[in-house]
Write a structure and sequence with these properties.
alpha+beta, 32% strand, Deoxyribonuclease I, Chain A, eight-stranded mixed β-sheet
Amino acid sequence: MSDRWNHCLDPRGGPASPIRWVRAAPGDDETELARWRAAVGPVRVADAPGVDDPDWPLQVIAWNAQVGGGAIRRLWDRITAAETDGHTIPTVLLLQEVFAAGPDLPEVVDDSAWATRITGTPRGENRTDIVSFAREASLSLLYVPSMRNGGPDGGTPEDRGNAILANVPLSSGHAIELPFERQRRVAVAAKAAVGGHRIAFCSVHLENRAPWRRAWRSLGSGRGRQMASLLGIFPGCFEADAFVLGGDLNTWVRGCREAAYTLARSRFPLPEHPDPRPTHHLEIGGWLRPADYLLFRLPTHWHCEYRRLDDNFGSDHYPLAGTIGMVADR
């Protein structure tokens, strides 16, 4: 089987700094996880100089980009258009379901596993893989594929997963492989420095449903298991002043009452009053449901807030736009 999944390349295909792999999954999951690893390409890491002397406020966005269906360029341009006192606002995107394409992906073989291909295209914008966008926009990137996007169907080789994209340098990259439910899931985490303080970020995408043979786990216990395992690693794997967890928790059954959310909230208690609006158009019926969250753990003299944007930028998920600052900045 291919071992490209644990290689690290820069956006131009050259060698990149290695990241730390942490397996939160139990040993019983290894056989299934190995089949999914075999079909994905390398981790992609971009080290960009970013904003000079980044200072408060810090913008943080959590968004599921629907594997190319979301207009990442348009979102980035929208949220970075404003300046504060003449300087560019430091911005970090915690992204789910972004994709990478190209010759670095291995061939799909009989004993490997893959997900059904998703090929959305945003209105008014080309479908763009995350690596190309990071290169063209000179942004820092940590992208870790979770699964192959499509099998041996003759289409362009692609994988998809989670990423952290930023206009500030990223360091201490981590890939956290979660317990297996139906598809392989890998959370990504990294640190950035803003205003002389270290902030650790994690982008996560939990399972939407379990396989039919244990369908009851789709009601929340599978996602609760994944979140509990993630919290056993993050934020404890970082030395930092503040911590941010953002992503698609797929809490389609009970919303904020699901174990995945209540567990996360117990470790990331801010903001005190989150935006209650739903974020995702359900696949069947199209009605909105709560799925995406942006949670913070901050020192007492810091403040944070977030709101759901009114534009979904072509994705089936709405972005959550947050800010972090010092109390004196308010």
